[in-house]
Design a protein that fits this description.
This protein has about 110 residues and is an alpha/beta fold. It has one domain (about 1-114): 3-Layer(aba) Sandwich (Rossmann fold), CATH 3.40.50.720. Helices cover about 35% and strands about 20% of the residues. The protein contains 5 helices and 5 strands. It has helices at about 10-15, 30-35, 50-60, 95-100, 100-114, and strands at about 1-5, 20-25, 45-50, 60-70, 90. Strands 3-4-5 form a 3-stranded parallel beta sheet, with helices on one face. Helix 3 (about 50-60) links the parallel strand 3 and strand 4 (about 60-70). The longest helix has 12 residues, at about 100-114.
């Protein structure tokens, strides 16, 4: 797992939570580091809590047929995907309201199995 973070104090937090590689994006170009770490293959999945320009950089880190999941918009809205970055197969945009009733929707069919 590759994690990126802005504040220096979050580098250790990322490691403590299982990141194999931590990129401090305020001091490193995370696109170049991801390419280096993955031998130019890119990553299969990105969970992006930042949005804005970071989202576009994350797209450039993707492997062909990769998945990107914007889960927040801390630095701005998710911009349109440029046509020059056509290698992304799917983008999932989770919505909190969709999952509020998840437990009851899962329990209904599970109760039928008992």
């Amino acid at each position: 797992m590759i994690a990126t973070c802005g504040p220096e104090e979050k580098v250790q937090v990322c490691r403590e939570h299982g990141a194999d590689h931590v990129i401090h994006y305020r001091t490193e170009n995370f696109l170049n580091r991801v390419r280096q770490i993955t031998a130019n293959e890119g990553v299969d999945a990105v969970y992006d809590p930042v949005g804005g320009d970071t989202f576009i950089q994350s797209l450039r880190c993707m492997a062909p047929e990769g998945r990107i999941v914007p889960i927040g918009f801390a630095s701005g809205a998710v911009p349109q995907i440029p046509a020059t970055i056509a290698k992304v197969l799917a983008m999932f945009v989770p919505q909190v309201l969709t999952h509020l009733d998840l437990q009851s929707r899962l329990q209904r069919p599970a109760g039928q199995l008992v």
